[in-house]
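so i finally got all the pieces together for this one. its two components total, 653 residues if u count the protein bits. some of the lines might not be protein, just check the labels. i wanna see the whole assembly predicted at once instead of chain by chain like last time, that was a mess tbh
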Amino acid sequence: MSIQLLAVTFNHDPAWATHDALNLRRNATEFVDVPEWRRGECVNPEDSPAAYATVQVRGHVVTIQAKFRTTDPGISHVEIRALDADIDPPSPPGCLGPFLRVLRSLFRTLFGNVLGEVAAAAVPFAANGESTFESFTLRYTRLDWAGVGAYATRWRWQYRLTSSHPWQDFDLSQHRIYVVHDIPTAPWQQSPYAASNTQLPWTEVLDRACAWAFGAATAEEAAKGVTRGVYETGPVILTYDCPGGGSSHYSYPSFDCTAFLERLRGGPGNGYYVNCSDCATFVATFANALGCDLWQSRMGWGFGLNPLLGIGASVWQPACGWSGFSYHEVAWTGACDVNDRVFDACLQVDADADPTSAPHWPELPCDMRFGDPGDGDYRDRLATPAGAPNCDPQPATRQRRAVL
Amino acid sequence: MQMQSDWLQERYEFAGWRESSGTEPSVVGIGFRFLGNELPGWRLHRSRSLQVAGAPPAVLSIWAPEPAAAGLLAVDVYEASTASNARAQLLKLLGEFQGPLLERDATVGEVGFRAASGALLFVRGNYAVQVRSVEREPVAPGGIAQRLDRHLAMAPDAEPAGAGPLRRASTVKGPVAPGQRVPLDLEFDPATGPAVWVRFFTPAGRILVEGGRAWYVAGPEGPRDISILAIGPDGRASRVLLRFQKESD
């Protein structure tokens, strides 16, 4: 083939997220190098990751940059584009062509890849046969309405010498595209954009968070998905720390996200047990990677508990059969106070009219108002009527633990 | 609104163990690390040194049985600047337990606490330590904690200065008054560098660690000797004895 794709850059402007991808790293030790796709190095979609924030790109034209080489010294410039390889495979000859084009148009709208197609642009080659990084506009993107997720994009790259020549396939590239609701919030950062900044969003976190919150169209839906996802790791992967008195295993003195990811992959991590601080940290950190705006904050101190279903548990009882909690911690919105909303992946509360006794109607607290004693909100479902006054919000403890 | 730290101080009667009784020799260390041979029958799976705002430098580790079996241990060692700060750190660790009041445990450390069957916390010198069973198959943490406590408190056989990682130790010349604070200057073998675990044993007075440097604060009475023990990355140890003059000497 006389034309080759050398590299594709999705994050070509680290200062902005309105027309290109977010700043990323893979995990605590590995940075996502730009260009994200490099000839000879990238084969599978996960080799070439990029993330887009729906709220940021909405209403804007998204662009990428790509670089090419020609092996034919007679070619000084060409026109290049890329089609969705799944919707637009090479056309069969004959009268089926027009019919398939109509069908593809429908498929593209419904099932096309989230980045759509790369619109055609002229690419000149220098004397050494290489182009510079040329800017391309994406069209038919579905970033606006695809919802949160990790999607594969496969592009069929084509060139033509002039508009009177037919398009010729010359390369195929594959990419993993994360769609998040908005720019990730703390502890995640977008600057400084440097390999030394371990708080840039991790793709290994996005892999999990996007799966848990798949399809979410709002921050609330995303946070709910993450909360459910964390709770559902019990009892196979994690469970509440009854044998050890309910101590923090992943969240003190900071969030050992590396160990948590190792545990999710089937490794030892920091072990089987978690407490509320761990769960609050998992939820807030993973939801914030999707652009939510949650905190980890405590309530207390020392209060009796209604029967509940702790993470990994199948029996309704006050946690581990204890009389109460010395403190509790949840993912929390806003000022982490009475009128703010909690997302608690550590336990399910009894959502019926009487949370103090059987029968129990399990509800995972997602986007539930904290409330005052007697309001019938989260506080009354968690704490006994006698304990609720001691289950005060403690907004001074509000934090977002850094990831390690 | 009551702060959690105030609530914890009352709950654990912190005033009763906030300071060392002074009856035990003081042990203070700098640069603790796990070499992997500290806990026979256990293999060091992972060890990570951390410096996080609001907490002393920490070494967080995970240990697996050797030979391979079920069970997993988490052993966290916090190296505070003083023995008092280590006790404050122990209180912070107690504040990370959601469950019932932890019971005092007299079998380990200068101050120890036990949570059900799965966790043991203690202080030795400027170290606050947490040993926990963290996998489905339970492991009693008591024996492990005692072994680690001995490791922190005991001085292994050591070679004289110059033969191991510590070449020389020096301080100010002349007598030292009670309460006077003097620096302790250490010179290491360039081949090992300063990245060795150094411990200071003194029968009277206090050792402080500030900015990675050790200081001696003379006590009102008793011998003013400091035994300095340095252990290199290869496990070799060397010892230096510093003897101070009293003003009355």
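The CA atoms of residues 54 and 66 of chain B lie 35 Å apart.
The radius of gyration of chain B is 19 Å.
anyway lmk what u think
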